[in-house]
Amino acid sequence: MSPALMLSVALILFAIGLFGVLFRRNFLVILMSLELMLNASNLAILTASQMFGKDGLQGHFLVLMILVIAAVEVAIGLAIAIHMYRTANTVEVDALSELPK
Amino acid sequence: MMEVLMWLFVILAIAGAFVVVMHPNPFYSALGLLLNFVSLGAIYMLMQSPILSLVQIIVYAGGIIVFFLFVIMLLHLRRPLNDRDMSLRGILAAVLVLVFVIVGVAALFIYPLNGFSYFYATAKDLGRYMLTEGLLPFELSSFLLLVGVITAIAIVKLYKEEKR
Fold first, then answer.
1. What does the pLDDT average to over B13-40?
2. B86-122 burial, b if ≥16 CB within 10 A, otherwise e?
3. What is the CATH number of domain B2-133?
4. Between 20 and 30 A from B163 (CA), which of A15, B39, B72, B133?
């Protein structure tokens, strides 16, 4: 598979994740879509770094750092989801508009 | 053979992503996410990066998915929550994303790219890089994990103090 094809796959996965964030109203599914987007960026970075031989080791390292950020994001996001469920008794983001219209 | 496996896992990854976005039940969305993560791990292995493949399987498929399923069960969200937005907003999102994909793929195929020159990155290579050139980001990431733990605890404590 050529790099352009792999980068296209990463782009399509990112687009599906973006669509999920815009389309769904369930907070947990929005978090899952964010994970999809982070994974797509990991795939793109790994593809790009495998085009440069040994110099591409920086890309592998960057993928690991993104993984750490994703783990922290999920931990805090799920804590927010639980807090949201306890206070508003739902995980739909539209139910949280507390500003007067 | 490698090519066939690569295509298989690419198709599985995209199918898993579709399940995440389109399935009304968040439990099945989490299982679709699991399919996506495992296929991406296999793709990393086929792209000559065994250490990232293992980390992907252990951290994402083993940690984050369990975390999601645990929260879904904790919140009793196993019944579908008809939340898919079929209004104008949903259609606009679909059109926007479609334009994004078409423009992006066209740009990727117009611009000439080099071929792959694989580097088989072992744990030894990555560990050496991590503790020499990448030392500062590595230490900062451990600090970030600490901040994440403290924030998660603080959010839970916030609820208890509000309740009193």
1. 92
2. eeeeeeebeeebeebbeebbeebeeeeeeebeebebe
3. 1.20.120.1200
4. B72
